[in-house]
């Protein structure tokens, strides 16, 4: 029987910028990528999301990004290595402290937004992120794009890795994500999204934008918490996977 994890980006709400329903999503997913404050969220909001994750038994992951609060961490940046490593270390440490304060622990790392996309291709920045993880806690599992440069860099450094696929994002024929600036980059149909992820779990392929099938190896599936209809897509995906005989479980342990 196939086993796969469901993850979502959470802890990103503030009163004047609410982007998702963390409590509802935590009833569906098995892993929570919790903002570390640089791209979104506030200390009190992040802490509340962590406490809810612990209560639901959802695995906690740190979700560090570029220092880009105004742009929600989606602005591409060419940050020098010393700065990037220090800023990722800072974010990991902050999330570990808040998780500990509510009786939880951080078990993995999934970079956010533009940083995530950059380190799927840019070996220098990928190495900076890996160096930060090694400095803070080398036992953390690194979750990254299936087929991306980051996972190779991490594995060479002795960091455990897991690959992920995206339920609500379109893929290029090369197995990369279609840029959010392109039409059709983000999917919104729960039935379509669910069917794609069942096929991923059973056959290891995703249909690309040109109609070809792309091989994708993934231990986790991401449903973005800030996408339109996110909860419906997450619920449909989980239901369809379970109906197909797929076990839904965290790839990196529980919340405590």
Based on CA inertia axes, which overall geometry fits? globular
Regions with pLDDT < 50 over 5+ consecutive residues?
none
Overall radius of gyration = 17 Å
Range of strand content:
15-25%
Q: How would you spell out the order of helices and strands?
A: EHEHEHEHHEHEHEEEHE
Total helical elements: 8
Strand order of the largest sheet: 1-2-3-4-5-6-9
How is the secondary structure organized here?
Blueprint: E1 3-10, H1 22-26, E2 31-35, H2 43-56, E3 59-63, H3 81-101, E4 106-109, H4 113-119, H5 123-136, E5 141-145, H6 149-156, E6 161-166, H7 190-203, E7 205-207, E8 213-215, E9 220-222, H8 230-243, E10 247-248
Parallel strand pairs: 1-2, 1-9, 1-10, 2-3, 3-4, 4-5, 5-6, 6-9
Antiparallel strand pairs: 7-8
Helix pairs in contact: 2-3, 3-5, 5-6, 7-8
Summarize the structure.
This protein has about 260 residues and is of the alpha/beta class. The chain has helices at about 20-25, 45-55, 80-100, 115-120, 125-135, 150-155, 190-205, 230-245; strands at about 5-10, 30-35, 60-65, 105-110, 140-145, 160-165, 205, 215, 220, 245-250.
């Amino acid at each position: 029987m196939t086993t796969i994890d469901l993850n979502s980006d959470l802890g990103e709400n503030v009163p004047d910028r609410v982007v998702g329903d963390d409590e509802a999503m935590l009833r569906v997913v098995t892993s929570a990528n919790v903002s570390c404050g640089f791209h979104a969220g506030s200390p009190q909001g992040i802490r509340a999301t962590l406490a809810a994750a612990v209560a639901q038994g959802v695995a906690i992951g740190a979700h560090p990004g570029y220092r880009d609060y105004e742009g929600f961490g989606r602005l591409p940046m060419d940050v020098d290595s010393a700065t990037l490593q220090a800023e990722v270390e800072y974010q990991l440490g902050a999330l570990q402290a808040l998780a500990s304060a509510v009786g939880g622990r951080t078990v993995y790392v999934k970079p956010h937004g533009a940083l995530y996309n950059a380190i799927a291709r840019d070996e220098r920045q990928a190495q900076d992120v890996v160096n930060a993880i090694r400095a803070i806690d080398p036992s953390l599992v690194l979750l990254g794009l299936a087929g991306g440069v980051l996972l190779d860099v991490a594995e060479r450094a002795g960091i455990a890795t897991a690959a992920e696929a995206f339920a609500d994002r379109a893929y290029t024929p090369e197995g990369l994500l279609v840029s959010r600036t392109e039409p059709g980059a983000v999917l919104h149909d729960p039935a379509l999204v669910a069917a794609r992820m069942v096929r991923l779990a059973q056959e290891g392929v995703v249909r690309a934008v040109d109609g070809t099938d792309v091989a994708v190896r993934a231990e986790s599936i991401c449903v973005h918490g800030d996408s339109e209809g996110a909860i419906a897509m997450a619920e449909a995906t989980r239901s369809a996977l379970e109906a197909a005989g797929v076990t839904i479980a965290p790839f990196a342990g529980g919340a405590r």
